[in-house]
Design a protein that fits this description.
about 80 residues, mainly beta, six-stranded mixed β-sheet
C-alpha cells in the first residue's frame, strides 16, 4: 500500500459513488476536504463516512475506490 495520494480534482469527485476494495457501497461523495472525503449513504437513515484521502486507490468517471474494506470503513463512520 502506498502512502501517496493520487492527484485528484475535487470537482471530479462531486456526487460520484464511493466503494471499498471489496465493492462495499460507501454512498455518494458529498464533500472533498483537505484531508478527508465525506460520503453519505442512504436516504432516510443516512450514514456519513469521513475517509482519508490517502485511502484512495483509483478513480474513474463514475466511482472512487478506496483501499479499505467494508469492515475498515466502519472506523470512519460518523
Amino acid at each position: 500500500m502506498s502512502d501517496t495520494t493520487p492527484i485528484i480534482n475535487p470537482k471530479m469527485l462531486s456526487k460520484i459513488e464511493a466503494l471499498c476494495i471489496d465493492n462495499a457501497d460507501l454512498g455518494e461523495v458529498q464533500e472533498v476536504g483537505i484531508e478527508n472525503i465525506v460520503t453519505q449513504k442512504g436516504t432516510l437513515d443516512k450514514d456519513k463516512y469521513y475517509i482519508p484521502k490517502n485511502s484512495i486507490d483509483r478513480v474513474n468517471c463514475y466511482d472512487v475506490f478506496f483501499r479499505i474494506t467494508e469492515e475498515e470503513a466502519r472506523q470512519y463512520k460518523a
